[in-house]
Write a structure and sequence with these properties.
295 residues; alpha+beta; 4 helices
Length: 295
C-alpha cells in the first residue's frame, strides 16, 4: 500500500511552497507532527471456495491468474520508489572537527549509483569558508552530486544569543535552534532577520542520543536553486540536524531540488539520522582554538 502525501499547499509570506514530506517516526528521525488527513482504501479480500466436481478447471485457473495480476499491479508502483530500496551506505568521519555521518553510494537493485564529489575537504573552523559577512557560520566540509542535484554539508557556528538565551541547552527547542542556524546562513550583507526570511521552516523535532540533544528540522530556501529552470515554484528542499559542543553548533545539511524531494528525500533522511558528534582524537581542533589561524 502506498500512502501519497496530501495535496494541500503551504503558503508562507504569500509564496506557495511545495507539500511536506511525511517522515517515519523512529529514533533520530524528524517527525512531521502536523499531519494532514488522507484517505486509505482498504484492500479487497479474495477467497476461493472448492468447486463442485463438475466445475471446469479452466475457470478456476483463470480466476487465480487474474487475482495474481491484480496483486501485482498493486505492488509494482510501490516497488518502483527509491525510498523502499535499502541503499549501500559509506561512513564519513571528520577527525578535525570530530563528527561522522553515513551517505548513500548506490542502490544495488536499481543499478543507481550516486556521483559524489568532495567539493570541500574537512578543515578547521578558523580557516573554513564563511556563509555570511560576519563569518560566524562556516562550512567545514561538503560533498556534492552535480548530476542529481544533491548537497551534503557540515557547518559550525556559535548560537544566536537573541534566540537561544538560556545557557542550558537541554531547554532549547528545535524551532529556535533552526532559526539560530538559519539567521547566519546567507552570503548577502543583510540583517539576521532578513537572512532568516529567505528560508521557510516546515517542521522541527528533537531527540536525545547518548545523553546529548539533537535538533532536527526541515526547511526550504526561497532563492532560485538552479539556472536550468526558471519556474518560480522550484525551491531547494533541506533536512538538517544540529548538535552542540564547546559552545558551538555543529549542523549537517542535506538538500536537493523540491521537484526531486519525493524520490531523494527519504534517502537523504538516512544521512541526517546518522549524524553524530564523536569522541575527539588528537587531531581534533576546537572551533575556539587559534581564531586568527587561516591555514
Amino acid at each position: 500500500m502506498v500512502l501519497h502525501s496530501p495535496c494541500y499547499p503551504l503558503a508562507t509570506n504569500g509564496v506557495l511552497l511545495p507539500n511536506r514530506l511525511f517522515f517515519r517516526n523512529y529514533r533520530g528521525v524528524i517527525l512531521n507532527r502536523k499531519r494532514c488527513g488522507f484517505s486509505e482504501e482498504k484492500g479487497r479480500e479474495f477467497s476461493c471456495c472448492a468447486l463442485n466436481p463438475g466445475a471446469q478447471d479452466g475457470i478456476f485457473r483463470r480466476n487465480l491468474v487474474l487475482m495474481g495480476l491484480a496483486s501485482l499491479s498493486i505492488t509494482l508502483p510501490f516497488s518502483e520508489t527509491l525510498a523502499e530500496v535499502e541503499p549501500k551506505m559509506a561512513s564519513f568521519i571528520d577527525e578535525i572537527n570530530a563528527y561522522s555521518y553515513l551517505y548513500p553510494l548506490e542502490l544495488p537493485t536499481k543499478n543507481f549509483v550516486f556521483k559524489w564529489v568532495e567539493s570541500r575537504k574537512p578543515e578547521r573552523y578558523s580557516s573554513a569558508a564563511p556563509l555570511s559577512p560576519d563569518a560566524r557560520l562556516r562550512i567545514v566540509s561538503e560533498r556534492v552530486d552535480f548530476t542529481d542535484n544533491l548537497i551534503i554539508s557540515v557547518t559550525i557556528g556559535p548560537p544566536n544569543s537573541k534566540l537561544l538565551k538560556a545557557k542550558d541547552k537541554s531547554t532549547w527547542t528545535a524551532k529556535y535552534v533552526a532559526e539560530s542556524v538559519l539567521s547566519d546562513k546567507s552570503a548577502l550583507r543583510v540583517t539576521p532577520s532578513q537572512r532568516l526570511s529567505e528560508s521557510a521552516v516546515l517542521d522541527t523535532h528533537s531527540s536525545e542520543i547518548d545523553g546529548e540533544p539533537y535538533w532536527y528540522y526541515e526547511y526550504l530556501v526561497r532563492k532560485s536553486p538552479t539556472k536550468i529552470s526558471a519556474e518560480s515554484n522550484i525551491y531547494r528542499h533541506y533536512l538538517a540536524t544540529t548538535a552542540e559542543r564547546d559552545g558551538y553548533l555543529y549542523t549537517l545539511n542535506v538538500s536537493t531540488l523540491s521537484t526531486q524531494w519525493e524520490k531523494m528525500g527519504p534517502l537523504l533522511e538516512k544521512t541526517v539520522n546518522s549524524f553524530r558528534l564523536v569522541s575527539p582524537t588528537e587531531n581534533y581542533v576546537p572551533p575556539y582554538k587559534d581564531p586568527w589561524r587561516f591555514w
